[in-house]
Design goal:
Number of domains: 2
CATH topology of the largest domain: Tetracycline Repressor, domain 2
Largest sheet: none
Radius of gyration: 18 Å
InterPro entries: ArpA-like (IPR047923), DNA-bd_HTH_TetR-type_CS (IPR023772), Homeodomain-like_sf (IPR009057), HTH-type_TetR-like_transc_reg (IPR050109), HTH_TetR (IPR001647), Tet_transcr_reg_TetR-rel_C_sf (IPR036271)
Keywords: DNA-binding, Transcription, Transcription regulation
Distance between the termini: 15 Å
Pfam family, one: TetR_N
CATH superfamily of the largest domain: Tetracycline Repressor, domain 2
Organism: Streptomyces sp. SID14436
Mean pLDDT: 89
Number of strands: 0
Strand content: under 5%
Number of helices: 11
GO molecular function: DNA-binding transcription factor activity; transcription cis-regulatory region binding
């Protein structure tokens, strides 16, 4: 068990180092040597977990969706929660910032950036499909098309927030995005019950982090 925990910590250390280097230097300019130096691990330890720089980038991509949030009685509330918490994590967590930065880095030569968007769209589509099954969406709503639109909208909103104020207002902008999009897809009675606020992001994020620690204890 101790060996497994050590391996998990080492993998996390490598990912955090890679995220920092990717964020500072960009994917193309970043080198394995720089990541090794930042992580303070051996080349063997790095290649035990990741076979290439591209695999490292994929690991960083996956961190964007790694946090499990508390389930809600409404699937649309879960969708809102995931967007709000992602906005909060983008502002506060370098690993998540690097994940989104890599996905949007058009200069990342040799890196297939489609897995990042595919994972995000697939997860959003699943939540919307469940919401439709539960009768929370209007009849005309296509979950896949809506997921793609939401991911595209979030990507643009976070980029604008980054350029204008280093994402300091990102949670507010995502709240505005949801307020504009949800009336076009949600059943009115469901829409009226949704809580969409930056304050909720902090509360749900804290709950999501607390649950794994409680299970471990």
């Amino acid at each position: 068990m101790a060996r497994q925990e050590r391996a998990i910590r080492t993998r996390r250390t490598i990912l955090e180092a890679a995220a920092a280097v990717f964020d500072e230097r960009g994917y193309t300019s970043a080198t394995i040597g720089e990541i090794l130096e930042r992580a303070g691990v051996t080349k063997g330890a790095l290649y035990f977990h990741f076979g290439s720089k591209e695999e490292l980038a994929l690991g960083v991509f996956e961190e964007q969706l790694a946090l499990t949030l508390p389930p809600q009685s409404s699937k649309l509330q879960e969708l809102v929660d995931s967007g709000l918490v992602l906005a909060l994590r983008l502002r506060t967590e370098p690993l998540v910032r690097a994940s989104v930065g890599l996905a949007l880095d058009q200069g990342a030569l040799g890196l297939d950036r489609t897995p990042a968007f595919r994972m995000w769209i697939d997860q959003t589509t699943l939540t919307l499909t469940e919401a439709k099954t539960c009768g929370e969406l209007l009849p005309h709503v296509d979950p896949t098309e809506t997921a793609e639109l939401l991911v595209a909208g979030f990507s643009g909103v976070q980029l604008l927030s980054q350029l204008r104020c280093q994402r300091r207002d990102l949670e507010h902008r995502v709240v505005v995005l949801f307020h504009h999009m949800l009336p076009g897809i949600a059943v009115p009675a469901v829409l009226a019950r949704l809580e969409i606020s930056a304050e909720r992001a902090e509360r749900i994020f804290a709950q999501g982090r607390a649950e794994p620690m409680a299970e471990a204890g």
